[in-house]
Structures are given as structure tokens and as C-alpha cells.
């Protein structure tokens, strides 16, 4: 439940060079961490939005929202940029409670002017969306966007296809941007997957799904959104990611295991 938009599904990016060796455990752990944070962002935005709707927000007070992970849980700021775009005006702020799906929403009598993370994140979202809509071509469908801070003060911005059918979790057609700390400049772009897969779970109780599998042709590593997909998808089952050279398993807790070389595993 990120900020939603309708955009296009295929972007012309150069594919990364082929890898001769599987990724180190540290690289897989970093992918797991970003994927888990994406899933946390999605869950926080979803439940915080539901809590906000119960408050009947004032019309025009909310243009977008930005979630941020803190030591005490997730905080979601709802608001809009001011006319000069030098502050993010927070109209409502939702704070996660003791349970992950419970959020306390506070209405600001006067919108709070944020010139820190929420401003930079809102700018980063706008920067990524502008580039995304200008360069993509293909099928039009709803997309979601999320923003995560990096250790160096920059921001990851993800654009991910939104579900359009109950119980069907789309995978693919997604992009990750690295945006400058002020939110104004694209540092790098990375296309994560090409085509969009929308696999429906088994409808027959006698044919339970025990795992999923998909091929990944753009790089020889799993992506952040593979982890996100496995955590958020129901039923909660592992996913096998088969690249040109390697095979990985993403577990429902977001951890990634290197299974082996594709030519040996798939023999």
C-alpha cells in the first residue's frame, strides 16, 4: 500500500554485466534487509492509511504520504509540499503502536513544516516518478512507490506494480532509483525485473502451494523486491529465483539462501 500512481511497465535500462561468481553472504544479507524494509513500509502505509480514513481527513490536506522506520516502529507522515517545495506540510502523523497493524493518528491543528527527511523523501518520490513516466513504455497499470533512506543519507525509491486482483501478488516490471540526499537528483537507476508475473494461488485445498519459482534474466542475484514479494504474498511460501548461472531460495522471513549453480541444480 505505497503511494499509488498509474504508469507504464517497461523501461529501457542497460542490463548489468554478467557475474562469474555468486554474491557474497554480505550482499545477500543487504538485499534481505532492504526487502524486509520494503515489506514493512508497505504494511505501515496500508494500516496507517486505514487509521487515517477513520479520522475523515480534511479534503485537500493530503497529497501523498511518506513512511519512515524508527527505533520505536514506523511513522507515516501525510501531507503535501508547500508551493515553493522547500517544506513538507504534515497534516496528519500516524505512529505505530504495540501491535504492527495498529496506528495512532494525530491531526496537526496547524500543518507541521518538515524540512528534513519527509521533505527530501517527498522530493525523491517526485523526481523518480517524473523519470519513470517519461521513460517507460508498455502496458499501463497501477504502480506503487516507496522510499527508504540509505546509510549515506541518499534514498532508494522503488516503483512496484500494485495488486489489481484480490489474492494475486504481482512480481516484476519494477525499478529502483538511488536519489541524492536532497531528493532532487537521480544518482543511479536499476531495472529489477522485466515482465510482470501474476500467479494465482491454488484454489483447491487439496493442492496446497509449497513454493514458488521464477527466472530472473537481468542479473545473477535476487532483487530487493523478490524479498518484498515473498514476505507480503499469501500463502506464505518460499520462492526459488533462477538466474542464468545461479539458483537462490528466498524464505518467508526474507532470508536468502544460495542453492547452487543453475547447471547443477537444474540438471
Describe this structure in words.
The strands form three sheets. The chain has a five-stranded antiparallel sheet with strand order 1-6-7-8-9, sandwiched between helices. Strands 2-3-4-5 form a four-stranded antiparallel sheet. A four-stranded mixed sheet has the order 10-11-12-13. Helix 1 crosses helix 3 (224-232). The chain has 267 residues and is α+β, with helices and mostly antiparallel strands. Mean pLDDT is 90; it is low at 7-12. The protein has helices spanning 25-54, 117-135, 224-232, 262-265; strands at 3-11, 64-70, 73-81, 88-96, 103-114, 136-149, 155-161, 175-179, 186-191, 212-215, 239-242, 246-250, 256-261.
What's a quick, concise take on this entry?
This protein has 267 residues and is of the alpha+beta class. Helix content is 23%, strand content 36%. About 2% of the residues have low confidence.
Shape: globular
Question: H/E order of the elements?
Answer: EHEEEEHEEEEEHEEEH
Query: In what range is the share of β-strand residues?
Result: 35-45%
Give the strand order of the largest sheet, numbering strands 1, 2, ... along the chain. Answer: 1-6-7-8-9
Q: Helix segment count?
A: 4
Q: Which segments are poorly predicted (pLDDT under 50) over 5 or more consecutive residues?
A: 7-12
Tally of strands: 13
Oligomer: single chain
How large is the radius of gyration?
19 Å
Work out the helicity level.
10-25%
Mean pLDDT across all residues, rounded? 90
Q: Sheet bearing the most strands, described?
A: 5 strands, antiparallel
**Spatial gap, N to C terminus:** 40 Å
Q: Give me the secondary-structure category.
A: alpha+beta
Amino acid at each position: 500500500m505505497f503511494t499509488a500512481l498509474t504508469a507504464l511497465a517497461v523501461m529501457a535500462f542497460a542490463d548489468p554485466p554478467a557475474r562469474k561468481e555468486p554474491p557474497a553472504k554480505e550482499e545477500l544479507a543487504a538485499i534481505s534487509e532492504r526487502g524486509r524494509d520494503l515489506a514493512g513500509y508497505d504494511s505501515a502505509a496500508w494500516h496507517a492509511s486505514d487509521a487515517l480514513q477513520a479520522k475523515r481527513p480534511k479534503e485537500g490536506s493530503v497529497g501523498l504520504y511518506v513512511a519512515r522506520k524508527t527505533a520505536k516502529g514506523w511513522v507515516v507522515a501525510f501531507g503535501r509540499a508547500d508551493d515553493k517545495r522547500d517544506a513538507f506540510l504534515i497534516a496528519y502523523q500516524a505512529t505505530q503502536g504495540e501491535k504492527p497493524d495498529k496506528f495512532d493518528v494525530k491531526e496537526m491543528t496547524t500543518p507541521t513544516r518538515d524540512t528534513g527527511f519527509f521533505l527530501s523523501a517527498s522530493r525523491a518520490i517526485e523526481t523518480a516518478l517524473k523519470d519513470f513516466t517519461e521513460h517507460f513504455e508498455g502496458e499501463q497499470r497501477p504502480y506503487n512507490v516507496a522510499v527508504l533512506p540509505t546509510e549515506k543519507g541518499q534514498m532508494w525509491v522503488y516503483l512496484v506494480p500494485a495488486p489489481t486482483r484480490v489474492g494475486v501478488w504481482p512480481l516484476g516490471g519494477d525499478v529502483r532509483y538511488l536519489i541524492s540526499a536532497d531528493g532532487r537528483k537521480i544518482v543511479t537507476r536499476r531495472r529489477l525485473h522485466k515482465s510482470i508475473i501474476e500467479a494465482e494461488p491454488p484454489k483447491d485445498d487439496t493442492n496446497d502451494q509449497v513454493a514458488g519459482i521464477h527466472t530472473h534474466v537481468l542479473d545473477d542475484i535476487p532483487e530487493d523486491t523478490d524479498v518484498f514479494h515473498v514476505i507480503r504474498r499469501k500463502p506464505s511460501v518460499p520462492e526459488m529465483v533462477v538466474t542464468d548461472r545461479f539458483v537462490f531460495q528466498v524464505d518467508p522471513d526474507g532470508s536468502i539462501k544460495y542453492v547452487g549453480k543453475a547447471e547443477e541444480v537444474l540438471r
